[in-house]
Specification:
Elements (H helix, E strand, L loop, with lengths): L2 H4 L2 E5 L4 H12 L3 E6 L6 H13 L4 E5 L5 H17 L7 E4 L20 H24 L8 E6 L11 H21 L5 E7 L5 H4 L4 H11 L8 H11 L11 E4 L9
Parallel strand pairs: 1-2, 1-4, 2-3, 4-5, 5-6, 6-7
Length: 268
């Protein structure tokens, strides 16, 4: 076994909960070491520590960073530390990058007042965190030689990119932009042998879903209509990401992969 095969690494943005946490655990069980970036307060920090403990229990190395993944200077600090870790191990690269950042405004476009409507700063922040940051992380990783032939870049989109959900307008726009960024990156990075795809998960009970005002309605609708009788879970998605991360999966790029168990449109 080559050193590259023996020391596979993933970088997960949004690693302490939801899809990021489930994927970190699943990849670690598959023999992948994990860099994790998360943003937690004192009250939510235990969930990040639990992910780290589970990764280490799988016998893999892990380095977590409690920092803002959408901040340019903090991104460089994370990448500097990653470079140092790779130096300690005699070289390395990121085999799997998962962008699973879920932070944005849920104000309507046109509310009853200015205060109850999305503003420019909130719109810009939502797009920067949930869409544009993917491009900036990929740029720096490529320029530093941390992404290369065989690397897989994955990001989390949602049906909101092409469906209308109350108060979800800014996030919907950011998800649509994320999918466009994915197609562009896949085209530009194809010659380097780097695959870039989006995962569109079905309705999943995560902290991000619970933040949506109509979350309970979405959950009720899925449970009533889903052919399998249940919601998508983070673990369902993590299993697909593990499968896509395998080196022999090398001809899927620039697309949106739906992981919803056959549910289809929300129809809310």
């Amino acid at each position: 076994m080559s050193s590259q095969q023996a020391e596979r690494w993933a970088l997960i943005l949004g690693a302490s909960s939801g899809f990021g946490a489930a994927t970190a655990r699943a990849l670690a069980r598959d023999g992948v070491n994990i860099f994790g970036v998360h943003l937690d307060t004192k009250s939510t920090l235990p969930r990040a520590k639990a992910v780290v403990a589970d990764i280490e229990a799988s016998g893999r190395r892990t380095v977590f960073f409690n920092t803002n993944a959408a901040d340019a200077r903090k991104r460089q600090r994370v990448l500097d530390r990653m470079a140092a870790v790779f130096g300690e191990t005699g070289g390395g690269r990121v085999d799997i990058l998962l962008h699973s950042l879920a932070f944005g405004t849920l104000l309507p476009f046109v509310g009853e007042s200015t205060e109850e409507s999305v503003g420019e700063a909130q719109m810009d922040m939502t797009f920067r965190v949930m869409a544009h940051s993917l491009v900036y992380w990929v740029q720096d990783l490529v320029w530093r030689g941390m992404l290369g032939q065989g690397s897989k870049v994955l990001s989390m989109t949602s049906s909101g990119s092409h469906e209308v959900i109350p108060t979800y307008g800014a996030v919907s726009g950011a998800k649509a932009a994320l999918e466009s960024h994915t197609r562009q990156l896949a085209m530009e990075l194809g010659p380097k042998g780097i695959q870039v795809n989006c995962i569109e998960a079905g309705v999943t009970d995560t902290p991000a879903l619970r933040a949506i005002p109509v979350a309970e309605e979405l959950i009720e609708q899925v449970l009533a209509r889903h052919p399998r009788g249940r919601m998508t879970t983070p673990e369902d998605v993590a299993k697909v990401i593990v499968a896509l991360s395998q080196p022999e999966i090398d001809w899927i790029s620039g697309t949106v992969i739906v992981v919803d168990g056959g549910y289809g449109p929300l129809g809310l």
